[in-house]
Amino acid sequence: MAGKPVQSKTSPANPDIQQEIGLHMDALRELGPGYSDAVAASLLERLEPLIEAKVEERLAQRGTPGRLDQRQVGALAITLGLAIPLTAIAGGIAGLTGIAVVWAAILFILWRVRVL
Questions:
Q1: Under a CB-based contact definition with an 8 Å cutoff, are residues 50 and 14 in contact?
Q2: Range of the domain at 59
């Protein structure tokens, strides 16, 4: 099962991202839960350039940035207003893994309302 891509039922994901997640999940299974923070940090480190490249690609496709509508501004304000306390709570309870999960959710929300 090593290196097996994680399949999404909602949308096709980048194969590089799927492979990285699969490899890190395998590493976590082999190393055990004591290494979850280290594996999460390593995963974030490896995914950051892939995500940045995807964002740059989308920005280039978009061309001139448009104005945000009120719904987007409201979602951005609420999401970022909740980001600080959620990050603090998640960091206190689950450490780096919790912070990574919270920020993944925040980025997903911003992506869904087309702020990112």
A1: yes
A2: 1-65
Contacts of the segment 29-32: beta carbons below 8 A, 24+ positions apart: none
Kindly state the tokens that stand for 108.
Answer: 């997903």
The residue type found at 99 is I
pTM (two decimals): 0.40
* Euclidean distance between CA atoms 23 and 19, whole angstroms: 6
Segment among 27-31, 32-36, 111-115 with least mean pLDDT: 111-115
Residue 4 has pLDDT above 60, yes or no: no
Domain end call among 49, 65, 81: 65
Which residue from 84, 82, 79 is spatially nearest to 116, judged by alpha carbons? 79
